C-alpha cells in the first residue's frame, strides 16, 4: 500500500480523518477541485450541502478510477465550504458517509476544511480537491 494513515501520540484522534499520511509511492496525482456536477455538468443537490459533498467525493472517486486508482491512494483532501460554520458539520459528515458507503471505502486521509465566501458557480456549496500517491 502506498499510503499509511496514522494518528501519532500527542495529537487528538479525530474520527473524520487521520492526522498524518505517509506516502511511499512514486507518482503524485493531483485531482482538481471537484464540485457537485454530474457527468453532464449539471449541479446535483442544489441547496443541499450533504448531497453536494456526496457528489464531490463520488467525482473524486470517478477521477481516481479513471487512472486506475481509488480513495485508498488519497494522501490529502482539502474541502472548501461556502459560508462555513460548525453547525453545518453534521451535513458535511452525512455527505461523506453516503459517498463512502457508495464507494465502499472510509475516506479518512488528512484533510483541511476551509470556509470560503463563494465558489465558481453560485449553486455550488462545496469543492473538494485530492492529492493521491501511486506506486
Automatic annotation (TrEMBL):
<dbReference type="InterPro" id="IPR006175">
    <property type="entry name" value="YjgF/YER057c/UK114"/>
</dbReference>
<dbReference type="InterPro" id="IPR035959">
    <property type="entry name" value="RutC-like_sf"/>
</dbReference>
<protein>
    <submittedName>
        <fullName>RidA family protein</fullName>
    </submittedName>
</protein>
<dbReference type="GO" id="GO:0019239">
    <property type="term" value="F:deaminase activity"/>
</dbReference>
<dbReference type="Pfam" id="PF01042">
    <property type="entry name" value="Ribonuc_L-PSP"/>
</dbReference>
<comment type="similarity">
    <text>Belongs to the RutC family.</text>
</comment>
<dbReference type="GO" id="GO:0005829">
    <property type="term" value="C:cytosol"/>
</dbReference>
